[in-house]
């Protein structure tokens, strides 16, 4: 129920309306809130964008009555799925070093190191410092790692029976209308590969910011994500060079560029409006390790001062596969308790309830895996969601 929120219309330069505080109560019905939000959006351009296939008069009742079907239809019409087979760039085969002379081995290692430095200088520097840069061991095959990761990802989330306190206030600023300026700012400097839908960043940038903003606002109002965008492609990155143990790989999930752009906007809003304890330094701006080390040193120095000696207990906790196993039940309990508006809680619940991913190892890709626990490493919202769950544990 939204009876404690006070919202009003504020038209921006795009012709859309923002929600601002005002001394009048909003409707008590979430459905009416969604209807009001859709009324504030300028949907007239849909007819031009879709060549007359969709217009404002037909899409609005569909979004109100069957939001999932409506956003899926919009996605199919606006960004048709590519039907040609997907191809991957071939990785050069590793050169066996066993039969090479010392001179040829050094030449090959030097060439490999120079190429690696050109591709990623920081990663190469770390490999040199760790003395792992000479490793040429071939990674594991898909069949070797699939059972471990399928079991981990598809395992049902642990039920959270904790009692979460109600929020001090609902941060409706997060659900304000997304403007074209926000989209433009969020598109600056974006890079990376296309997701499973094969929609590239250059194609996304080719769409007017006003249109992308309106599309994202439709997703907020519908509290749904297009079904096609709930799928990811997960690549395993080795934490320990040369190891074939599937547990020492980090899964990086790539989703659609549209989803990444939308979550980039939401992540900035969450960071600005939803309070997270300053004691939480993981996935936060700044040098978290340095800050916590300095803090611990100060505490130890103060507690061990001979003039005021006092007992001190320090506990180190390292949770194995924490990001990959965080409970979805905990996420959806922590979100409303932190004051995240109901439409965005519903959006995230819908996104994660239908989330699937394909595991990619080399040129092999697995069948889809239903993801029932954990957050997606590589998604900008995942850092906030993980920190929010940890924050609620510390507070409660």
UniProtKB/TrEMBL annotation:
PROSITE patterns the record matches: RT_POL (PS50878)
InterPro entries with a match to the protein in the record: DNA/RNA_pol_sf (IPR043502), RT_dom (IPR000477)
Superkingdom, natural source: Eukaryota
Pfam families per UniProt: RVT_1
Domain Reverse transcriptase span(s) in chain numbering: 218-396
Designated name of the protein: Reverse transcriptase domain-containing protein
Organism: Bugula neritina
């Amino acid at each position: 129920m939204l009876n404690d929120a006070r919202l009003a219309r504020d038209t921006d330069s795009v012709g859309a309306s923002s929600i601002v505080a005002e001394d009048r109560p909003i409707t008590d019905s979430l459905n009416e809130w969604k209807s009001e939000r859709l009324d504030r959006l300028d949907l007239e351009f849909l007819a031009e964008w879709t060549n007359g296939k969709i217009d404002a008069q037909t899409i609005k009742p569909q979004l109100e009555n069957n939001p999932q079907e409506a956003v899926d239809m919009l996605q199919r019409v606006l960004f048709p799925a590519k039907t040609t087979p997907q191809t991957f760039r071939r990785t050069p085969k590793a050169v066996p070093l066993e039969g090479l002379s010392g001179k040829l081995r050094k030449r090959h290692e030097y060439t490999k190191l120079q190429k690696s430095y050109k591709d990623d200088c920081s990663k190469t520097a770390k490999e040199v410092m760790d003395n792992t840069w000479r490793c040429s061991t071939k990674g594991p095959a898909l069949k070797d790692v699939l059972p471990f990761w399928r079991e981990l990802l598809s395992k049902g989330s642990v039920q959270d029976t904790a009692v979460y306190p109600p929020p001090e206030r609902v941060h409706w600023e997060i659900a304000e209308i997304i403007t074209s300026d926000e989209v433009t700012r969020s598109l600056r400097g974006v890079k990376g590969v296309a997701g499973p839908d094969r929609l590239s960043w250059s194609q996304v940038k080719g769409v007017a910011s006003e249109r992308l903003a309106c599309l994202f606002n439709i997703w907020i109002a519908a509290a749904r994500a297009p079904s096609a965008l709930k799928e990811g492609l997960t690549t395993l990155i080795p934490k320990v060079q040369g190891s074939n143990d599937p547990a020492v790989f980090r899964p990086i999930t790539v989703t659609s560029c549209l989803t990444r752009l939308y979550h980039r906007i939401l992540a900035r809003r969450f960071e600005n409006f939803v309070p997270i304890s300053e004691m939480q330094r993981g996935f936060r701006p700044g040098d978290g390790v340095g800050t916590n080390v300095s803090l611990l040193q100060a505490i130890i120095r103060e507690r061990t001062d001979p003039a005021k000696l006092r007992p001190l207990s320090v506990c180190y906790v390292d949770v194995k596969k924490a990001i990959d196993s965080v409970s979805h039940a905990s996420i959806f309990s922590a979100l409303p308790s932190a004051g995240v508006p109901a439409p965005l809680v519903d959006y995230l619940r819908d996104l994660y309830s239908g989330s699937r991913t394909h595991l990619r190892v080399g040129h092999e890709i697995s069948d889809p895996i239903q993801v029932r626990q954990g957050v997606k490493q590589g998604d900008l919202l995942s850092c906030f969601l993980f920190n929010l769950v940890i924050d609620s544990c510390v507070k409660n």
